[in-house]
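Hey all, quick one. A colleague (J.T.) asked me to put the nicotinamide-adenine-dinucleotide job into the tracker so the inputs and the structure tokens live in one place instead of scattered across chat threads. No bug as far as I know, just bookkeeping. Sequence used:
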Amino acid sequence: MKNPENKVAVVTGGNSGIGYATAQKLKSEGATVIITGRSAEKVEQASKELAVRGIVADVSQVSAIEHLVSQVKELYGQIDILFVNAGIFAPAPVGQISEEMFDQQMGINFKGAVFTIEKFLPILKDGASIINLSSVNAYTGMANTAIYAASKAALNSFTRTAATELAPRKIRVNAVNPGPVATPIFGKTGMPEEQLNGFAQAMQNRVPLKRFGEPTEIAKLVAFLASDDAAFITGGEYNIDGGININPGIM
Ligand code: NAD
């Protein structure tokens, strides 16, 4: 990243997993980093560990995002990097999709992402970089992921339009589509451990590189897209998935 010491980065959902690793990476490159999350306790702990500022904000509440933006504006004025990462994974088969589960998943993964960008726009510097954390699920028909996948497909669609519309301000908007990454997200589904292990094994078997990704690997791609080295990249989507999206199925 060029001139990272002059850059201010906001990482939503930065207290855990991919967001945590990315906050660490951006900070190590000299950026001033602000992480957000839903749980006050977890945000406080992570911000202490990372030595960055932590602000509690539930992205499913537009008023909470507005409050977050006003705090960031007061402290830092404008920002250079917005990593829209907060998300949840709530698997359920078609036929057992509840309205609550639909609203929760779309509300965080899609509506939350859209309004994070909407509300941060006035304090994004011209030339800023927005990176949306999507998923290869946006393109797959993996069982039990209909709503999760739709929330990420919607996010990728939004990314393309936003990239076009924000180009006059030289704001770049890109999406990153990870395959399975070893983070606490799966443990939060409420699946019993045995089922979780079976799910992880089945998933790993489908990855041509035969492993889960590490959060630090995603962080490196996000940091690149945030940097001036990626100055000609906008409206793009980058799979980082051990090849799962091109798995021919006979492996
Ligand atoms: P994680 O559970 O470790 O982290 C998720 C983060 O999002 C946490 O910091 C959590 O506090 C935050 N968050 C959740 N709901 C929130 C809300 N309402 N308001 C504010 N913050 C909220 O999981 P992760 O795997 O690091 O997930 C990060 C992103 O990566 C998500 O968008 C997820 O969909 C995406 N993703 C993960 C994988 C994977 O295999 N782990 C694969 C593809 C995409």
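Adding what we noticed when we looked at it: The first strand starts at residue 8 and ends at 11. The chain has one domain: 8-239.
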